[in-house]
Amino acid sequence: MKFELKRVSGKSILFVMAAEAEYGPFLRSRIDPLMTGVGPVEAAIALTRTFAQLEAQDDLPDLVVSLGSAGSARLEQTEVYQVTSVSYRDMDASPLGFEKGRTPFLDLPATIELPLRIPAIAEGSLSTGANIVSGTEAYERIGTDMVDMETFAVLRVCQAYGRPLIGLRGISDGQVELQRISDWTEYLHVIDRKLSYAVDGLFTALEDGVFWF
């Protein structure tokens, strides 16, 4: 898996994405991300393998940034938001008395806060799961501002290795029901450009000393 750690102001950053369709010319001019494949299982496998290799080289990143597209029925289409909190909508052990979204016997809340913030980027809560969410009722049942398929898995790997995480998501769909793959890809070129500006904002904040961890 080809990727390159980005080094800015003495910090190394690993960017993580799921699909080549989200990785357009603007991001290509700035970063060489780890491409994991789609969904929480693929994200967890790819990032764990990568972290194990980097740890053996004594070169774990100082920061991980998970970025790509997301769906939302609330937020503005094509705009970019940083993740304030993430939950795992696939987990449901409620028949055994556990809170929905909470993994049994794991000392973590159902919703996990992400404390780091890049200045001047809008914010939103995120739900991760293996299903594509479509339709107003489906979004209402989930309750977060946006949905994706990888960030919670990336977060759990980061927690296992003691690395901080930032999530950046551009809203590609959600206002109408999805019927074909082009409903997802239609605005990815716009999101690519706006995500690249968010990445620039992170680099500038690090260089100016207004963002630290």
Present the secondary structure layout.
Elements: E1 6-8, E2 11-17, H1 25-28, E3 34-35, H2 40-56, E4 63-71, E5 80-88, E6 111-113, E7 123-128, H3 136-142, E8 146-148, H4 151-161, E9 165-173, H5 182-185, H6 188-208
Parallel strand pairs: 2-3, 2-4, 4-9, 5-7, 7-8
Antiparallel strand pairs: 1-2, 5-6, 5-9
Helix pairs in contact: 2-4
Description of the molecule:
This protein has 213 residues and is α/β, with parallel strands linked by helices. The protein contains six helices and nine strands. It has helices at 25-28, 40-56, 136-142, 151-161, 182-185, 188-208; strands spanning 6-8, 11-17, 34-35, 63-71, 80-88, 111-113, 123-128, 146-148, 165-173. Helix 2 (40-56) packs parallel to helix 4. The longest helix is centred in the last third of the chain and has 21 residues, at 188-208. The model has no long low-confidence stretch (mean pLDDT 93).
Assigned CATH superfamily: Nucleoside phosphorylase domain
Can you write the helix and strand succession as a string? Answer: EEHEHEEEEHEHEHH
CATH architecture: 3-Layer(aba) Sandwich
CATH class designation: Alpha Beta
Radius of gyration: 17 Å
Q: What's the structural domain tally?
A: 1
Number of strands: 9
Distance between the amino and carboxyl termini: 27 Å
Report the helical percentage.
25-40%
